[in-house]
From TrEMBL:
PANTHER family: GLUTAMATE-1-SEMIALDEHYDE 2,1-AMINOMUTASE (PTHR43713), GLUTAMATE-1-SEMIALDEHYDE 2,1-AMINOMUTASE 1, CHLOROPLASTIC-RELATED (PTHR43713:SF3)
Transferase as UniProt keyword: yes
GO MF, any single term: pyridoxal phosphate binding
Native species: Neoroseomonas eburnea
Pfam families registered for this protein in UniProt: Aminotran_3 (PF00202)
UniProt KW Transferase keyword: yes
Keywords, sorted A to Z: Aminotransferase, Pyridoxal phosphate, Transferase
Protein name: Aminotransferase class III-fold pyridoxal phosphate-dependent enzyme
InterPro entries: Aminotrans_3, PyrdxlP-dep_Trfase, PyrdxlP-dep_Trfase_major, PyrdxlP-dep_Trfase_small
Required co-factors: pyridoxal 5'-phosphate
Family statement: Belongs to the class-III pyridoxal-phosphate-dependent aminotransferase family.
Length: 452
């Protein structure tokens, strides 16, 4: 190339020669909108493409070794290619992948859930957390005969219409005329009826929450909550808010749906007991599938009877072609069997160590940043303001500009976080990996300008 020639870049703004991942991204852009199957896992200029995973490490197609803290959005509690899961899948796949008949595997996984928490007395499996929420909401409607639901502002519960309401409200639209959280559409084309039927609650304001529930309670089928919601900052829902929810449910006959799709991993019996919650339905997903697609709705037999078809057409029909598929059942059973109380406690302690080490590093560097989270889940917050809910967790303009650069610096240092700089630990990790994550995170923040 002539030295004086202008610098040539390709469609993704990268200089040739391309890495294999850059070439794959160019190829994918032609056949997939945005060049990515998932909005959530895309980041600029493009993610590295995975070739294989082993334990807590990923090897990308360019041969780079990356410490995986994304764990497929917290669904891999044992990391990659966990030998007991590989063995269970190898055994199961030889017997056939799907039948128009039940299998014993679905009984075993449902029994494993019930053994961990008697409140998960009965279960129906589906293929994603989104479907689990959809099923639980339909179940609550079927039982109560009401159709409106309440959810908390900014909280993610999958891509089902009602669950997306007020997922990304902004200061320009987040209050209604009375100063309560407004029902804000997320997807273009959201039907107005969806907004009218979804009441939005504040995550950290018990008085306002109680007042909204006093007004709307008698018309609500369900309140959906996640007591440690990632999009609300990965901070605990205050006990006073939980008390206001409990009171409204008892007073107005509203059913409580606790979304444990992510947070089931926080306790052997899941997250509800840790927050004193007694849900009517629990939605599950992620780690209970051992890395395969999964969702589930669980609850006491009296509640789950809404899905019972034994006497003819059920009040709410629930099922799908691949529901309770034998491979997911086998992988899920192996995943849970190796995530016993001791394993949960060990992983949670590693999470405490991670937060303490990172926070000590930030303090020593005089950096106004910290790691929030609980157990094996963590999320980076820039700034010194207390984070209590979706609004306070929302990054400032400067922080929003810095986070992708910190994410990129982490990746350059060989650590994969989710794009909003959160992560989950996995059982193959030891104190060595945890120290590495904490130290790299402090270094990445300090090397990034513009947010301090
Ligand atoms: C709290 C919560 N609920 C539900 C879901 C939806 O699960 P899925 O992606 O399996 O549909 C997610 C996904 O990340 C989640 O974080």
């Amino acid at each position: 190339m002539n030295e004086a020639a202008p610098r040539r870049t390709n469609e993704v703004g990268l200089d040739p020669p391309l890495s294999r991942s850059a070439a794959a991204f160019l190829r994918e852009q032609r056949v997939v909108p945005g060049g990515s199957m998932r909005h959530a896992s895309w980041f600029a200029p493009h993610p590295p493409y995975a070739a294989r995973g082993q334990g807590c490490w990923i090897l990308d197609i360019d041969g780079r070794r990356i410490l995986d803290c994304a764990n497929n959005f917290f669904s891999l509690v044992h990391g990659h290619a966990f030998p007991p899961i590989v063995a269970a899948l190898t055994e199961a796949i030889g017997r056939g992948t799907a039948f128009g008949l039940p299998t014993e595997g679905e009984i075993a996984l449902a029994e494993a859930l019930a053994a961990r928490n008697p409140a998960l007395e009965q279960t129906r499996f589906c293929n994603s957390g989104t479907e689990a929420l959809l099923a639980a909401v339909k179940g609550a409607r079927g039982i109560t005969g009401r159709h409106r639901i309440a959810k908390f502002e900014g909280c993610y519960h999958g891509s089902y219409d009602h669950m997306e309401v007020s997922l990304d409200s902004t200061p320009a639209n987040w209050d209604d005329a009375e100063g309560n959280p407004a029902s804000v559409p997320y997807a273009k084309g959201t039907p107005p009826a969806v907004l009218a039927d979804t009441v939005v609650l504040p995550y950290a304001d018990a008085d306002r929450c109680a007042a909204i529930l006093r007004r709307h309670g008698p018309g609500l089928a369900a309140i959906v909550l996640d007591p440690h919601a990632s999009k609300a900052g990965m901070v605990a829902m205050p006990a006073e808010v939980i008390a206001a929810v409990r009171e409204a449910c008892a007073r107005d006959g509203i059913l409580l749906i606790v979304d444990e799709v992510v947070n089931f991993r926080l306790g052997f019996a899941g997250v509800s007991p840790l927050f004193g919650l007694a849900p009517d339905f629990v939605t599950l997903g992620k780690i209970i599938g051992g890395g395969l697609p999964v969702g589930a709705v669980s609850g006491a037999a009296g509640r789950m009877a809404v899905f019972d078809h034994a006497a003819g057409k059920p009040r709410v029909a629930l099922g799908g072609t691949f529901s309770a598929n034998p491979l997911t059942m086998a992988a899920g059973l192996a995943s849970l069997a190796h995530y016993d109380a001791a394993a949960v406690a060990r992983l949670n302690a590693l999470g405490d160590m991670l937060r303490a080490r990172a926070d000590a590093g930030f303090a020593a560097a005089g950096a106004p940043a910290r790691l929030d989270g609980m157990g094996s889940l963590f999320r980076l917050h820039l700034g010194t303001r207390p984070v209590t809910d979706y609004r306070s967790a929302r990054p400032t303009v400067a922080e929003a500009a810095a986070l992708p650069r910190i994410h990129a610096a982490m990746l350059a240092a060989g650590v994969l976080l989710t794009p909003n700089c959160s992560g989950a630990l996995s059982t193959p990790m030891t104190e060595e990996e945890v120290a590495l994550i904490a130290d790299r995170l402090v270094e990445a923040c300090m090397a990034t300008e513009g947010w301090r």
